[in-house]
Amino acid sequence: MATAPILSDAAEAQAPAPPRTGEDILRRVRAIVPRLRARSAEIERERRLPMDVVELLRGTGVFRMGFPRSWGGPEVSSIEQTEIIEAISYGDPAAGWCAMIGSDTGLYVAFLDEAVAKEMFPRLDMITAGLLFPTGHAEIVPGGYRLTGRWQFGSGITHADWVISGAYIYRDGAPEPGPDGDPHDSRLMMVPREDAEVIDTWYTTGLAGSGSCDYTITDVFVPAERTLTFDTVRNGEGPLVQPEVHMHNTPGVPLGVARAALDHARERVAARKRGGDYRTQVTIAECEGDLVASRHGVYGAMRRQYEVLSAGGTLDDLTPDERAALPLSRRHAFRTARSIVSRLYDLLQTSSIYQPSPMDRWLRDTHTMCQHIVAQDRILQSAGAYLLGAEPEFPLCLGITAPAKPPGAGGK
């Protein structure tokens, strides 16, 4: 299991106190951005985060930001979490991606019994990786399940402490129906990292440094109490205790990369020719405008959600347009970032293709991250279907874990 280094009494006494607020974490993150940028080529070459980079991130507090205050955690809002991931991604996209995934640990605790979660996570900076979609086979046995399967996209699994994996439930080899009438039930299973075998498959166009390898779990016993579903909250309350909360900070990665690319392009233009020509000025302005609009869309949708949830409301208290704005703004951020980087790549022409220019890496990274489910057309279908009273293919992106009530059918 990947763990933080054990410190001597003297070293521990000199270690900085854990961050208590999102502002503190963001301040620490901004301080390491130049170091992340300097390591980007190495991170891509290694196809995973080097362990000293993982510990550098851990020291900022990013992996503890989802833990509740009742645990001694900072309980950072989704808005601040996204700003933090945005700042890390400005330094290195793969580091931002792994921080975004690994920091979900504190968000999962709401869906576990508190005593179980505290036993599983004795430290608040433990890292979780894994694929949530059910591709594994979980056979019901006394006290839990025997889990077997192979999963893709285990971002950060090479440095994780726990692995969370979706699996279909079977009883005596036959599919087990769900309590809501689903013909085949599924759950999320959490196992220690040493129970998973990493398969080195991560040879990709972009985000190479995220180490998003395949992994297998073979006939591992998973106690029932270490399984969860997002429709059942077992402890906690508030804005972070939501079924799709783990999706909230995802747009921080593309927004951070787009900002980095724009700053790089502006510096290059300033170095070559003061003010640039007409085409350069128009392109920079268009890209700035697109980033500003996309960023405001993301943060505006999250702020409205936070207002409703922090006042004691639920996602059902959002208007249909407000609820659909959450997944739509996330998807738009990914697609807009890819467009911005592509246009700037063309603007800088041949200088984009030579190392150590980061433009080529950002181009590949944004194209790769746009293949994630949150950036796909399935999000458009789900939001559009919800707005039109039809059935979303991916209702969880809207925070829906039960059959959806169509907008206008007796609700907001």
Q: What does it look like?
A:
The chain has 412 residues and is of the alpha+beta class. It has three domains: 104 residues, Butyryl-Coa Dehydrogenase, subunit A, domain 1 (Orthogonal Bundle), CATH 1.10.540.10; 101 residues, Beta Barrel (Butyryl-CoA Dehydrogenase, subunit A, domain 2), CATH 2.40.110; 149 residues, Butyryl-CoA Dehydrogenase, subunit A, domain 3 (Up-down Bundle), CATH 1.20.140.10. Helix content is 44%, strand content 14%. It is built from twelve helices and nine strands. Strands 1, 2, 3, 4, 5, 6, 7, 8 and 9 form a nine-stranded mixed β-sheet that branches. Helix 8 runs parallel beside helix 10, helix 8 packs antiparallel against helix 11 and helix 10 runs antiparallel to helix 12. The protein is globular and about 70 Å long.
Short description:
Keywords: Oxidoreductase. The chain is α+β, with helices and mostly antiparallel strands.
List the helices and strands and how they pair.
Blueprint: H1 9-14, H2 22-46, H3 51-60, H4 78-91, H5 93-102, H6 105-108, H7 114-120, E1 128-129, E2 134-141, E3 144-154, E4 162-171, E5 174-175, E6 186-192, E7 197-199, E8 213-223, E9 227-228, H8 252-272, H9 278-310, H10 320-348, H11 359-369, H12 377-387
Parallel strand pairs: 1-4, 2-4
Antiparallel strand pairs: 2-3, 3-8, 4-5, 4-6, 6-9, 7-8
Helix pairs in contact: 2-3, 2-4, 4-5, 4-8, 5-8, 8-9, 8-10, 8-11, 9-10, 10-11, 10-12
